Structure prediction request, 239 residues.
Amino acid sequence: MKITIGHLYPDLLNLYGDRGNIQCMKKRCEWRGIEAEVREFQNTDTVDFAGLDIVLLGGGSDREQMLVCEKLKLIQKSFRDYVEDHGVVIAVCGGYQLLGHYYDTDDGRIEGLSLVDIYTEQGSPRLISNIVIENEIFEYPIVGFENHGGRTFIGDNRPLGKVMFGHGNDGKSGSEGILYKNVVGTYLHGPLLPKNPHVCDYLIRNALERKYGVSELAPLDDAQEKEANRYIVERFVSN
Ligand code: GLN
Prediction:
């Protein structure tokens, strides 16, 4: 079996070392004997979504998002077809905001891809915090760090999780991120997947299921990752 991971615009959307998330997906495939190829797309490249199984759209500053939104317009239709066909996407921070209709900033509107029915408005202060969220579809909580000026409104869409500690989508609703078909959008940036191997496996499993109809993943020894995760949950969430 083989998984092809597409990294969109790593030179513009790589604010938090998003390559680390790619590395995590690649390694967790390889440890199971699944071949994993990574393709990086720069902003002048055409993106052949038909050849991709997982797409990563990373974080960026408002300025970089403004630049990238022009490029995204060119691939909007094929990206939408990929999403509607249950293509797997992991979109982080700036990339998450760009999945929606728009991101309104003090310097103007950044048009999004309208792949999911969400929108973002800039607010003050920035929402900066450690964050812990939970969702019963995941075996244990998801931990991370958030730093965003945007408030994202997801309407009736399914969130990635419920906020146990931190701010989440808009600082008020108690929801964080989004799940739409096989799309995961989240404000948890940096080493999201190394810190949360269960989220990494969720993406890999969905990609394998779509491509090969295989939904079982061989277990890996995540004892250290689970212990680190538990430490963070205990540190920030009072029982
Ligand atoms: N520029 C966006 C914001 O501040 C996203 C930043 C980020 O990727 N964390 O809301």
Summary: The two ends are 43 Å apart (CA to CA).
